[in-house]
């Protein structure tokens, strides 16, 4: 981008930052993030320009304001969860939808494939798991797998595995998004065939009310991790006005923040799977946990980012 076009595109924003200072920590942080992005771009392409020196001075001024408003290190932690991560998601909603669509279509294919091929479930889930579940069904406890291990050990294993899956889905985005899409597709097929396995035996509702106590957060987080991976891959494939390397660095930074932001979701899902899913709960309680989990995901990752974006644009 030519320097004149860069200045013209951003002049009104810089003037507003300079002439209308704010003491609101969230808005100050939002402005500072945008300004430092502009400064980074200017340093890369116009290192000796007047506009670079101007932005550097304005960023230094805003940094001092941030330090004055920052009471302690906890503010940075709160800012990440209340502003920075949701704002990233507003920018990534299109990729989040694509990630969901890939997973959903794969789930349907897994369901249909299991319905038309008796060997498909064993191919996807493995003979050991299928045989164990069939044995549990005979015993009257079809989901007895959740009672087989010590809670604390199970919690640690599940949480670490889920976090590993999340970061692997993110890292596979380095392969031009293809690796991430493959991970989403495989997990979607697995879930679809898994649910058909229980449907075929008249246990679909029972499995949903039990498995989705933790599955709502767990599956949602995998889809969101897919969004992080697609963010990385697309930054390489579609750099826009940025040079490809600059766009790729920005994509990695943004995708990594999204992946890190999922860690508490996986910890919560691991806790639910280890300590709650194994319990025999009334259907209304199970449904309540599932609905609350789904409402949180929709609000925090979709509705709140939209509201936040509108607030900062108004």
From TrEMBL:
The chain crosses the membrane at residues 95-114, 154-175, 219-242, 254-272, 284-306. It holds the Pfam family SpoIIM. Keywords: Membrane, Transmembrane, Transmembrane helix. The keyword Transmembrane applies. It comes from the Bacteria. This is Stage II sporulation protein M. It comes from Fibrisoma limi BUZ 3. The lineage of its organism: Bacteria, Pseudomonadati, Bacteroidota, Cytophagia, Cytophagales.
């Amino acid at each position: 981008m030519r320097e004149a076009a860069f200045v013209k595109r951003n002049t009104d924003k810089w003037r507003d930052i300079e002439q209308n200072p704010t003491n609101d920590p969230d808005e100050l942080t939002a402005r500072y993030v945008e300004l430092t992005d502009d400064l980074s771009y200017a340093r890369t392409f116009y290192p000796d320009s007047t506009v670079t020196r101007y932005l550097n001075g304005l960023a230094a001024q805003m940094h001092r304001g941030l330090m004055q408003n920052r009471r302690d290190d906890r503010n940075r932690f709160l800012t990440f969860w209340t502003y920075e991560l949701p704002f990233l998601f507003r920018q990534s909603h299109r990729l989040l939808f694509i990630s969901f669509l890939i997973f959903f279509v794969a789930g349907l294919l897994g369901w249909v494939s299991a319905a038309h091929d008796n060997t498909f479930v064993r191919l996807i889930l493995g003979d050991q798991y299928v045989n164990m579940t069939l044995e549990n069904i005979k015993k009257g406890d079809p989901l007895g797998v959740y009672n087989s291990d010590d809670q604390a050990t199970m919690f640690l294993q599940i949480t670490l595995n889920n976090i590993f899956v999340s970061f692997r889905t993110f890292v596979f985005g380095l392969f031009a998004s293809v690796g991430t899409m493959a991970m989403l597709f495989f997990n979607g097929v697995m879930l679809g065939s898994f649910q058909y396995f229980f449907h075929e035996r008249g246990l679909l509702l029972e499995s949903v009310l039990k498995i989705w106590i933790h599955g709502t957060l767990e599956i949602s987080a995998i889809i969101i991790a897919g969004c992080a991976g697609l963010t990385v891959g697309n930054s390489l494939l579609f750099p826009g006005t940025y040079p490809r390397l600059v766009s790729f660095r920005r994509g990695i930074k943004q995708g990594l923040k999204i992946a890190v932001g999922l860690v508490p979701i996986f910890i919560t899902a691991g806790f639910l799977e280890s300590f709650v899913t194994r319990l025999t709960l009334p259907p209304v309680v199970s449904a309540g946990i599932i609905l609350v989990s789904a409402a949180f995901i929709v609000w925090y990752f979709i509705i709140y980012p939209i509201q936040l974006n509108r607030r900062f644009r108004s």
